[in-house]
Design goal:
The protein is mainly α and 342 residues long. It is built from 14 helices and two strands; from the N terminus they run αααααααααααββααα. Helix 7 packs parallel to helix 9. It binds fe (ii) ion (2 copies). The site of one fe (ii) ion has 5 residues, from helix 7 and helix 8.
């Protein structure tokens, strides 16, 4: 991954937003922005950017942040039921990582002028979405492994190209997130390997979890390209680097040999290697199911939102205490500054 900070910023030319009576006019700024994108350089927070670019990024980053936070729930349910202290500690650490990913991403959205409290409000009022995958239930401990393998695996396919996204803070947040996601994927696979070496009942649990999570995981990449109207603009702005269908194909090609090694069957009779294309052919996900889940009618939508709302309400005192502490600290350092100046 090449995400070095050497990609130059455009801030020197464009300067911060705000009135600029003698500054360059909008057309110049836009040309400069386009040229920066064309040179594969980064747009930074203080650079001029088109409103549509800013809006698209805020929506995408917020949706990504919400997914990380809601994504803590399906596996979080298994922390208390994990079969050993070791598995509990691993799962605890993984779920905590997801909270961290949410925080980096909310911070990246704030560099675009979004307000984190407002984004949270939009989530809990259902005005902003999160990934459809987290609206499916985790029925056995094998689901924890399959989520690591499939869901974190799909996240890696989606997010590694985002390390080269045109918006600097988003791209840089992705570098660390991807490292952790790849660790998550391996822990999921290792858990499944262990279960596959166990009893028949454990092997059945793994196969059952694979059967339930395979198609929803393919849907994580979003609708097919011809039904994804925003993709072309996002790709032109280099926010997104590959289309939904390309990424889905990449995920299938990556996962098939892993499934063989594990000894499970992927539940798709149309899945086969196509030597001519150099890729696997596979069946069509049930797009009407994706639509249903996205529009709020998945198996666990209501439960996920209810829990998020409750956690937000119950966390009010923590936010108040943190704000009061920050205000006190600010006052103290202000006093110290005045004291030093006097
Ligand atoms: Fe994550
Ligand atoms: Fe993860």
């Amino acid at each position: 991954m090449t995400t070095s900070d050497s990609a130059s910023s455009t801030s020197s030319a464009a300067g911060p937003a705000g009135p600029r009576p003698e500054g360059p006019d909008e057309q110049d700024l836009e040309q400069h922005f386009d040229a920066t994108i064309a040179r594969d350089q980064r747009i930074e927070p203080r650079d001029w950017m088109p409103d549509g670019y800013r809006r698209t990024l805020i929506r995408q980053i917020a949706q990504h942040a919400h997914s990380e936070i809601i994504g803590m729930q399906p596996e979080g349910e298994w922390i208390m039921k994990a079969p050993s202290l070791r598995r509990k500690a691993i799962l605890f650490a993984k779920v905590q990582d997801e909270a961290g990913h949410g925080l980096y991403l909310y911070s990246a959205a704030e560099t675009l002028g979004a307000d984190r409290a407002d984004l949270t409000q939009r989530l809990i009022e259902g005005r902003q979405k999160y990934s459809s995958i987290f609206n499916y239930p985790t029925l056995s401990f094998a689901d924890v492994g399959v989520i690591g393998w499939f869901v974190d695996g799909a996240a890696i396919c989606n997010q590694v190209p985002l390390c080269r996204s045109s918006y600097g803070p988003y791209a840089r947040a992705m570098v660390r997130i991807c490292k952790e996601e790849s660790f998550h994927q391996r822990q999921g696979y290792e858990l499944l390997m262990t279960m596959m070496r166990g009893t028949d009942a454990q092997r059945e649990m793994v196969q059952d979890a694979v059967d339930r999570w395979w198609w929803p995981s393919l849907m994580m990449f979003g609708p097919p390209d011809d039904a994804s109207p925003n993709s072309a603009q996002s790709m032109a702005w280099k926010i997104k680097r590959h289309s939904n269908d390309e990424l889905r194909q990449r995920f299938v090609d990556m996962t098939v040999p892993q499934a063989e090694k594990l000894g499970v069957t992927l539940p798709d009779p149309e899945l086969r290697w196509n030597a001519e294309r150099g890729h696997h052919d596979f069946g069509t996900p049930d797009w009407s199911e994706l639509q249903r889940v996205i529009s709020g009618d998945g198996p666990c939508n209501a439960q996920r939102m209810e829990r998020r709302r409750t956690a937000h309400e119950e966390g009010a005192w923590v936010r108040e205490a943190a704000s009061a502490y920050a205000a006190k600290q600010a006052k103290q350092s202000e006093r110290a500054r005045k004291g030093a100046a006097a």
